[in-house]
Amino acid sequence: MTVPPAGGVSNASGLPVIGISAGLDTIDRGDWRALRSVVLPAMYAAAVTRAGAVAVVLPPPGQTAVDDLGGHAAAVVARLDGLVLAGGDDVDPARYAVTRHPLADDPQPDRDAWEIALTRAAIESDLPLLGICRGMQIMAIAAGGTLDQHLPDVVGTTVHSPTPGVFARHTVSVLAGTQLAKVLGPEQIEVPTHHHQGVATLPEQSGYAVSARHEDGTIEALEDPGARFRIGIQWHPEAGTDVRLMAALVASATRRNVPHCETSRP
Q: Partners of 130 in the beta sheet?
């Protein structure tokens, strides 16, 4: 039996392995009805592959499938070279101790618990981590932060998600001196966006610093300056043409990736 050691997965290509978190949903397909299925937009895996890595989808195992979710997440992370926390439905506001907004999505407790466990395991091992939209919000919540549940109530416009089911575009300002600025430049950039929630607070002890904002004050990116690569962004690079962020994640994962020895059954 092949036993990959911590720090990545042995694979014939030698490419870094990037895990991508996914959700669960009930779908109809062919003769099947109400089939519980793993759901992840294909553009995430395509973006990781284009950046030069192997994409591995990480669905929630379910809270009854494993006895120790944190330990399971740590075992998964030990076999990765990098992690993407994908976008998706709203995180249950019970995770940050507030009452659910009428326009918030239905809770997905299995996905919330799984992604928080993955995030904490990734931080523990300093695994290169990119959180996208919901993924950035998971990073904040895992560190004790809170969200604004409906940004139009806060900023007075729907600029961040003006049309259902369509990515909008708006400008964000990247702060000088940040890791994000090293990747994208300390400038204003136009990004694909679709979200109605945003990070409201980050406790000082979280280790995170804001690295980009929208002109209305919305936090558009956060990062841990002391980490190898730990960045959360509120926009959707996988839906655009700018490959720099995903390429930076893969470059960090490549530096982490080392040759692995295989232990074979005698």
A: 84, 231
CA distance 119 to 231: 12
Superfamily of domain 17-256: Class I glutamine amidotransferase (GATase) domain (3.40.50.880)
* pLDDT band for position 256 (cuts 50, 70, 90): confident
What average pLDDT does range 162-190 have in this prediction? 97
**pLDDT reading at 73 higher than 70:** yes
Torsion of CA 21, 26, 32, 37, to 10 degrees: 10
Distance CA 226, CA 229 (A): 9
- Pairwise CA distance, residues 137 & 115, whole Å: 11
Given this model, what pLDDT does residue 64 score?
74
pLDDT tens-digit profile of 5-27?
445 555 767 999 999 999 999 99
Domain ranges of the chain: 17-256
pTM of the full structure: 0.92
Q: Are 98 and 56 in contact (CB under 8 A)?
A: no
What secondary structure does DSSP assign to 90-115, as a single string? PPPGGGGT-PPPTTSPPP-HHHHHHH
- Catalytic residues, by residue number, are 133, 236, 238
Which helix (H) or strand (E) element contains residue 153?
Answer: helix 151-155
Answer left, alpha or beta for residue 107, where phi above 0 means left and psi between -120 and 50 means alpha: beta
- Cβ neighbors of 15 (< 8 A, separation 6 or more) are 52, 53, 54, 257
